[in-house]
């Protein structure tokens, strides 16, 4: 492993939001097909890179030890 590589090391975390459909289908694979089409569209959108950058910004500004309202009094 070279010390001066230009690639980033470590875990990268991104997320996408998917709606859940609870409609019963006659074909059980119809849900899988619909979800695959939706995920393929979202992969081409800018949602994942923007959510990653927003998460990185929040972590750089607030840090990993910020507690968002889960403190017990």
From TrEMBL:
Residue ranges constituting the O-acyltransferase WSD1 C-terminal domain according to the UniProt record: 9-66
GO biological process per UniProt: triglyceride biosynthetic process
Domain of life of the source: Eukaryota
GO molecular function, one term: O-acyltransferase activity
GO cellular component: a single term: plasma membrane
PANTHER family per UniProt: O-ACYLTRANSFERASE (WSD1-LIKE) FAMILY PROTEIN, O-ACYLTRANSFERASE WSD1-LIKE ISOFORM X1
Protein name per UniProt: O-acyltransferase WSD1 C-terminal domain-containing protein
Source organism of the structure: Acorus gramineus
Lineage, uppermost ranks: Eukaryota, Viridiplantae, Streptophyta, Embryophyta, Tracheophyta
